[in-house]
């Protein structure tokens, strides 16, 4: 029996994933969590084999939740399911301890394949992601500017580039306006930029915008 926690803030997504799991051959049981706090609480209270984790949920980001889960339960297998393209978050997620990364555009068959492979103790990456990782390793010496940002700085940068105000970003990430302003100043300094317009241009050029 594989026990899986589905973590996503959209009820329709959770229902769809639950249906796919129910149709899998073999014994699979599933539970649901709507936000990061609920994920952590359920993992604390029960013993799951795997988490299907959305990277964009209210409050703490999926990457933050991923790191906390791996810190508390190093053996827990985590498959990231995201609306964001692989090139934006996949490498960061794998570095943080994820067992695999799939976009929500993936087919049910690919999801089942990923779950089976991860359950067997292996990592799962799509063919396109494997190519991205290989390219990433090839150009490590020519690291893109955004790769020097921390995960939180990267998230704030993407939000700034999407046109959100500091106040809006603070509300979404459950942080203070002062903290977001500090992140913004740090991002501009690290990327050697002067304003939001330059950040936005960079994000669009590198396909990083929301």
Explain this structure.
With 210 residues, the protein is α/β, with parallel strands linked by helices. The protein folds into two domains: 2-138, Rossmann fold (3-Layer(aba) Sandwich), CATH 3.40.50.2300; 143-205, Orthogonal Bundle (Arc Repressor Mutant, subunit A). It has ten helices and five strands. It has helices at 11-22, 36-45, 62-72, 86-95, 108-119, 127-138, 151-161, 166-173, 177-190, 196-205, and strands spanning 2-7, 28-33, 50-54, 77-82, 100-103. Strand 3, helix 3 and strand 4 (77-82) form a beta-alpha-beta unit. Helix 7 (151-161) crosses helix 9 (177-190). It starts with a strand and ends in a 5-residue tail after the last helix. The relative contact order is 0.10.
């Amino acid at each position: 029996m594989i026990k899986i926690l589905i973590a996503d803030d959209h009820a329709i997504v959770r229902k769809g994933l639950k249906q796919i799991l129910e149709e899998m051959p073999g014994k699979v049981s599933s539970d649901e969590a709507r936000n990061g706090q609920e994920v952590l609480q359920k993992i604390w209270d029960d013993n799951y084999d795997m988490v299907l984790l959305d990277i964009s949920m209210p409050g703490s980001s999926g990457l933050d939740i991923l790191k906390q889960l791996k810190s508390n339960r190093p053996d827990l297998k985590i498959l990231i399911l995201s609306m964001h393209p692989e090139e934006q978050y996949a490498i960061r997620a794998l570095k943080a301890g994820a067992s695999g990364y799939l976009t929500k555009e993936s087919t049910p068959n690919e999801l089942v394949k990923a779950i089976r492979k991860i359950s067997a103790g292996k990592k799962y990456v799509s063919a396109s992601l494997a190519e991205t990782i290989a390219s990433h390793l090839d150009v490590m010496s020519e690291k893109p500017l955004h790769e020097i940002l921390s995960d939180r700085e990267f998230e704030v940068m993407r939000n700034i580039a999407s046109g959100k105000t500091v106040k809006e970003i603070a509300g979404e990430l459950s942080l203070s306006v002062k903290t977001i302003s500090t992140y913004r100043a740090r991002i501009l300094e690290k990327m050697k930029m002067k304003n939001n317009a330059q950040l936005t241009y960079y994000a669009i050029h590198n396909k990083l915008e929301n």
